[in-house]
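> call design_seq(struct)
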């Protein structure tokens, strides 16, 4: 929820999806289509992912994550 609020404060349209039988995720509305941001537990803590590759994932507590997602979403 914190990520959704942070993205909204940056001017992005977001929603939180809570599917039955699957992990929750944040959807960022983009001109090119929705961008799904997921959270996963890794060895060193929680990680947000919003695409493929290491440049599109970061520790969940990293304050720069919303800004990095905004750059991809524009």
């Amino acid at each position: 929820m914190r990520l959704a609020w942070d993205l909204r404060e940056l001017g992005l349209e977001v929603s939180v999806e809570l599917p039955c039988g699957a992990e929750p995720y944040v959807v960022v509305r983009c001109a090119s289509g929705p961008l799904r941001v997921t959270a996963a537990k890794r060895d060193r803590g929680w990680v947000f992912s919003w695409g493929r590759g290491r440049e599109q994932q970061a520790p969940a507590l990293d304050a720069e994550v919303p800004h990095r997602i905004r750059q991809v979403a524009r």
